[in-house]
Amino acid sequence: MNPTLTKAQKTEIIGSLQRYASKELDCELGDIQAGHLLEYILKEISPFAYNQGVEDAKGYVAAKVEELTGTCFEEGLTYWKSASGARQVRRKP
User: Fold this and answer.
1) What single-letter DSSP state applies at residue 45?
2) pLDDT tens digits, 8-57
3) Using an 8 Å Cβ cutoff, are 50 and 41 in contact?
4) Helix crossing, 31-44 with 7-24: angle to 10°?
5) Which residues neighbour 71 within 8 Å (Cβ) at sequence distance 6 or greater?
6) How far apart are CA 28 and CA 37, in angstroms?
7) Which residues does residue 90 pair with via DSSP β-bridges, in sequence order?
8) What is the pTM of this model?
9) Contact residues for 90 (Cβ-Cβ < 8 A; gap 6+)
């Protein structure tokens, strides 16, 4: 799953890659070189971040589903407990 970047995003990222190469690696990257490096990173490395994001989202949703019973619980046999006979949804005790 390669992310789709806008032209503005690509331009900004290419500038960042060029700045990084210059300051951290002591080499200069042209626009074409930095663009190829960006495409390589998107194709080869970004799937790892994408898959981790999917796993994180899966864990988050699973935790919320587990909380659902405690969040939305309706106690049965409550008709005689209230004078009006109205039903109330409340947290599980």
Assistant:
1) T
2) 999 999 999 999 999 999 999 999 999 999 999 999 999 999 999 999 99
3) no
4) 100
5) 91
6) 13
7) 73
8) 0.67
9) 73, 74, 75
